[in-house]
UniProtKB/TrEMBL annotation:
Belongs to the short-chain dehydrogenases/reductases (SDR) family. The keyword Oxidoreductase applies. GO terms for molecular function: oxidoreductase activity. Pfam families: adh_short_C2. It comes from the Bacteria. It is an enzyme of class 1 (oxidoreductase). Its EC number is 1.1.1.-. This is SDR family NAD(P)-dependent oxidoreductase. The lineage of its organism: Bacteria, Pseudomonadati, Bacteroidota, Flavobacteriia, Flavobacteriales. The keyword Oxidoreductase applies. Keywords: Oxidoreductase.
């Protein structure tokens, strides 16, 4: 249970869902963790639940340069270094066809999902320990299209360009950069998608998704966290520039 002993991790989108599950697993394996999110109430509740001096939080909008600089400086102030960066924050927007998609929601998705990942790499990686690990949360939507999710799909495809470029640019420091691509996971994001698809019966939408997953179920956030843990640990020290799919077989169905 010490795969991350003496490591310091930054996790964006850390207040709930995959970010929270990953933070818990990181702590269990000996890391110190800075949780970053825009929702202070969720961060406070998560920190209270963890109840450890090895976890701290910073309220930040990842789409803003100054907020990004702030969470980097607060991490260094609290824990002295950064070894792991889980570049995880993201939003889904609404399920709406391209021809009807609201421009303001498109802009916000690009700001959080794409610019947020870009800014995170730009400001975190220069302060990282050589030999560190960056993990970017993309999606199966970063590898294929989905009707009604055009901006989200575009942002998740764009994250791969950042990941692959960063993997090349920071290889001389042995910093590895990889992306994870979950299918549907039991998180608030999927509840939002299900409600958009079927407002009167979201459960029906969930069952529809499950029929196209060979394992016929959603993932639990901890299952995604376990993959992130591997990529964060020294066990993955020769893996960089890769797309790690974790979708119960959805992409090949």
């Amino acid at each position: 249970m010490n795969r991350l002993k003496d490591k310091v991790a930054v996790i964006t989108g850390g207040g709930q869902g995959i970010g929270k599950a990953t933070a818990k697993l990181f702590l269990d394996h000996g890391a110190k963790v800075m949780l970053v999110d825009i929702a202070e109430s969720e961060l406070k509740a998560t920190i209270q639940e963890f109840n450890t001096a090895d976890a701290a939080y910073c309220v930040s909008d990842v789409s803003k340069s100054q907020d990004t600089k702030d969470y980097v400086s607060q991490t260094l102030s609290a824990f002295g270094k950064i070894d792991i960066f889980f570049n995880n924050a993201g939003i889904v927007g609404t399920v709406t066809p391209i021809l009807e998609y609201p421009e303001d929601i498109f802009d916000r998705i690009m700001a959080v999902n794409l610019k947020g990942v870009w800014l995170g790499c730009q400001y975190v990686i220069p302060k990282m320990t050589d030999g560190g690990s960056v993990i970017i949360t993309s999606s199966v939507a970063g590898l294929k299209g989905f009707k009604g999710l055009g901006p989200y799909v575009a942002s998740k495809h764009g994250e791969l360009g950042i990941m692959r470029t960063a993997a090349l640019e920071f290889a001389d420091r042995n910093i590895r950069v990889n992306s994870v691509h979950p299918g549907p996971v039991h998180t608030r994001m999927m509840r939002s998608i299900e409600k958009d698809i079927s407002p009167d019966n979201p459960k029906e939408a969930q069952e529809g998704f499950e029929t196209i997953i060979p394992f016929v179920r959603y993932a639990d956030p901890k299952e995604i966290a376990e993959l992130v843990l591997f990529l964060a640990s020294d066990e993955s020290k020769y893996i960089t520039g890769t797309t790690q799919v974790i979708d119960g077989g959805m992409i090949v169905a």
